[in-house]
Amino acid sequence: MTDKQSLKQHLLQLDNRGYKAYKEIQGSYNFDEFTLIIDWVQGDPFASPSKFRVKIPPNIARIPCELFQSRSREIALRDYLTRQFDKAARHTSSKRGTGKSGTIAVTRLGQEVLERTSALIVSSNTSDSEDLGGVEMRFSVGLPAGGRSILGRQAAEMLCEDIPRIVSLSLKYSSLNAAECRRHVETVEDADWLREQLAEKRLVAFVADGSILPRRSGVDNRPLLNDAVAFVSPPSLKVEFNCPNRGLIFGMGIPAGITLIVGGGYHGKSTLLRAIELGVYNRIPGDGREFVVTNPAAVKIRAEDGRSVAGVDISPFINHLPQGRDTVQFYTENASGSTSQAANIIEALEVGIRKFGNEQCTGFNGCQSDGSRKKEEGKGNEEQERRKKEQDLVPVLLVDEDTAATNFMIRDRRMQELIAKDKEPITPFIDKVKQLYADCGVSTILVMGGSGDYFDVADTVISMDNFQAYNVTEKAKEIANKYSASRAAEGGESFGEITHRVPVPASLDPSRGRRDVRVKVRDVDELAFGNEEIDLGAVEQIADSGQLRAIAAAMVCAKQQYMDGKRTLSEIIDLVMADIETEGMDILSSFPEGDFAMFRRFELAAAINRLRSLSVVAKR
Ligand code: ADP
Ligand code: MG
Question: Which of 287, 311, 375, 379 is most buried, judged by most C-beta within 10 A?
Fold first, then answer.
């Protein structure tokens, strides 16, 4: 391995040569306090920037081990260090020539604290520093060029002066703000802890008092600055927790079952639901929603007309389409509002729930009696662990009327009179939502300002009034008794069967031209997979472009490793997720990737399900 001085010499010698000569600097370099690794060098100044890493050993980084001793803390610390590096890099780097010349950048960061491959903690095994952590940081560098020739002196400055300065400012514990770092780590640990407590209290979400839910604008996810009304729980829904770091915290607990959020237009309903949707992830301190936590399997469901659907059994909701179209294996290139919403629900159930129909369901809030639950406590730990894992996957559905198909949500008395049941393919959600809970343990939180018919099926009704929440359950029940909706229930005896699907391996093809794998990600909503474009604009719980990058890689892994024409989609996703859990996200790429962020099985399934070439066979 050569040192910093020789790298500098080399760069100065490269001055004015053609850009391709930069390839020569690929390799590892011993800097005074860390190792610089140049994994990959870009082909020209306009291409994606070059991939770099620095490794700072524990005796230099000196990060106290209590900051990474639990999994939550470690993930939070990695996120924190990435943000510090980002700040220092923005401050230090500047444009130095054509194209991307001069940039030094880590992965893009938003409000969420996610497990990211941008930073890793390296613990030491030498005895003199065994309580300290080191850091590996991955980032990209736009190697400088004037036109297409190398700017050697600028490159030497960037690599041999700027990078050491950034490292020194952001990755050495002595230069960090210790209190802020601790707060980051403790906040995330508390949020994870809170999320774990939900099931035991039979809650699906918790919104802490004092939370700031509204965002600065439709394109700015930071908290609204002025005029934001802080959240206060209605007294009758108030719960308390004693967090490991923060101590007592109060807020609104949303119980398992069916919850309506009602209220006038512009009174904060959607803002509350949006915070709950993203409560499956942790947020940075100061976000305002850092203690809004949601069941980890909560899935936003919406209408998404125009999407493709591949062989999904939407028959629990939709039957007898015109022209005799099959809804047991429903294929379309262009779904309607209602069929897309039905497919979105069934697809979430397909990867979330293990058993259906007459077999016992596994939802914590579902059909198991207390008696059977007690019996289970006698069984081995392993069995309990397995059950707990399965329970963690049972979806909670989140629906907002703003993005739902009206004819999927409601069908009132008058319409039932005019259009007979046998002329209407759709069984509306209102007739299925109770069965979902009773048969499968699937809870629903539904924003519905427009139809009081739902009072009949709701367990809890929360009203938003001037951005304040009230528990109006009793009143809604009284009204439901006073004015009958007079609807005929159309849902039948039970929710119905969920048919698992086996993907046809050839229908997922990441290759393009001569390249075996060509995947490309744009922001959080577009993914190019081989020759296909996947539109994920309606998959609202992909919060970070790094998640989509990792999803793209996981799709390739799913195809190459596990799609064999026999396994179901759900089994394939289980295997991929288990690999990531045991080996880390690095198994998704052949070189050290700094731009992956952790995602959920639901979003991986969502991407596969939106691939227009996907074809499946039903597993009966
Ligand atoms: P609804 O779904 O009830 O029609 P929204 O949730 O879309 O209402 O909110 C309407 C507007 O009010 C949005 O601009 C939102 O940012 C803002 N808003 C929501 N909650 C609050 C709050 N707690 N304090 C201040 N403004 C809020
Ligand atoms: Mg709304």
Answer: 287
Question: Cβ < 6 Å from ligand 1: which residues?
Answer: 213-214, 224, 227-229, 263, 265-271, 464, 467
- Measured between alpha carbons, how far is 287 from 151 in angstroms, rounded to an integer? 41
| Pairwise pLDDT comparison (23 vs 95), residue with the higher score | 23
From the CA of 469, how far away is ligand 2's center (Å)? Answer: 15
Closest to 429 in 3D by CA, of 490, 517, 368? 490
> Ligand 1: which residue has its CA nearest to atom 26?
228
How many CA atoms does the CB half-sphere of 612 hold within 13 Å? 14
Within 10 A of 545 (CB to CB), how many other CB atoms are there? 20
Nearest atom within ligand 1 for CA of residue 402: 2
Confidence at 372, pLDDT banded by 50, 70, 90: very low
Count other C-beta atoms under 10 Å from residue 360's C-beta: 11
The residue ranking higher by pLDDT, 593 or 386, is: 593
**Whether residue 376 has pLDDT greater than 60:** no
478-496 residue pLDDT tens = 999 999 999 999 999 999 9
Residue 165 predicted with pLDDT over 80: yes
- In 3D space, the residue among 403, 274, 400 whose CA is nearest the CA of residue 337 turns out to be 403
Query: Using an 8 Å Cβ cutoff, are 351 and 392 in contact?
Result: no
Residues with CB under 5 A from ligand 2 (ion): 269-270, 402
Distance from the CA of 485 to the center of ligand 1, in angstroms?
30
DSSP state of 546: H
For atom 23 of ligand 1, the residue with the nearest CA is: 229
Identify which of 226, 261, 271, 402 to mutate to test ligand 1's pocket (most ligand atoms within 8 A of the CB): 271
Q: How would you class 265 by CB atoms within 10 Å of its CB: exposed for 0-12, middle for 13-18, buried for 19 or more?
A: exposed
d(CA 213, CA 247): 22
Distance 431 CA to ligand 2 centre (A): 23
Q: Given this model, what pLDDT does residue 392 score?
A: 81
Show the 3-state SS of 211-245: CCCCEEECCEEEECCCCCCCCCCCHHHEEEEEECC
CA of 276 to the centre of ligand 1 (A): 14
Q: How many other β-carbons are positioned within 10 Å of the β-carbon of residue 228?
A: 16
Instruction: Please determine, for residue 402, whether its predicted confidence score (pLDDT) is greater than 80.
Output: yes
CA of 268 to the centre of ligand 1 (A): 4
In this prediction, residue 383 carries a pLDDT of 83
pTM of the model: 0.94
Whether 375 shows a pLDDT value over 80: the answer reads: no
Query: Which two structure tokens, joined as six digits, stand for 414?
Result: 């008058």
Q: Which pairing describes strands 2-3 and 27-30: parallel, antiparallel, or unpaired?
A: parallel
The structure tokens listed for 164 are 């050491």
Ligand with an atom nearest the CA of residue 399:
2
Closest listed ligand to the CA of 264:
1
**pLDDT at residue 582 above 60?**
yes
The Å distance, Cα 221 to ligand 1 centre, comes to 14
